[in-house]
Amino acid sequence: MHGSASPGWLLVALCTATGAYCLLRMRSSVEEQRRAAGGEALMGFGMAAMAVPAAVFTPPQWAWPAYAAVFGTAALRALWTARTSPHHLHHLVGAVAMVYMAVVMAATPGHHGGSGVPLLTGVLLLYFTGYVLLSGARLIPMTAGGGTVGWGDRPEVARACRLSMGIAMVAMLLTL
Question: DSSP labels for 42-53?
């Protein structure tokens, strides 16, 4: 996204770390964890790529339609899987937000944001702000269940990753 270099690099680092952790979560023995982690890894790495400061690297014009195609496909997959898991509705909203940002960036090469549809940007900001607040409240420590849980299956770490991606989405939408 177009914005200041320091926050951009912080978003790149945050989203890359989140994406990497989500890749590790794909090794979980819990099928739902693996399924959700794949979409979250794609989102984390996609957000990292979009957050690289424009002063450092300006993607070629074909990159934005490619982002839109990748996240459009992810949105269709999330829509399909949302039939059985309501969490995938959030993945759907996230993928649609990524498509929206890619379309806006494709339409305004070299500009520094401000060209999105204000109502849609506002709705997405409202959704992700609410998501961040709710996710933050859910980070309250949980009591330990009976057995030992592998670090890749710890729900509070997965929630922290989702929270960080929500915060990154709010930051990216603010620069739009």
Answer: HHHHHHHHHHS-
Cβ-in-10-Å burial (0-12, 13-18, 19+) of 143 comes to exposed
- In this predicted structure, the answer to whether residue 162 has a pLDDT above a threshold of 80 is yes
pLDDT tens digit sequence for 50-72 = 989 888 888 898 999 999 999 99
Q: CB within 8 A of 31, min separation 6: which ones?
A: none
Residue 100: strand, helix, or coil: helix
**What mean pLDDT value characterizes the chain?**
85
Report d(CA 2, CA 173) in Å as an integer.
10
* Phi, psi for residue 5 in degrees, rounded to 5: -65, -45
CA–CA dist 94, 7 (Å, integer): 20
CA dist 25 to 35, 81, 97, Å? 9, 18, 24
Residue that has been written with the tokens 């739902």 in this structure: 32
Number of domains in the chain: 1
* pTM over 0.85, yes/no: no
Q: Which domain holds residue 21?
A: 5-175
Q: Token pair 């959704």 is at which residue?
A: 127
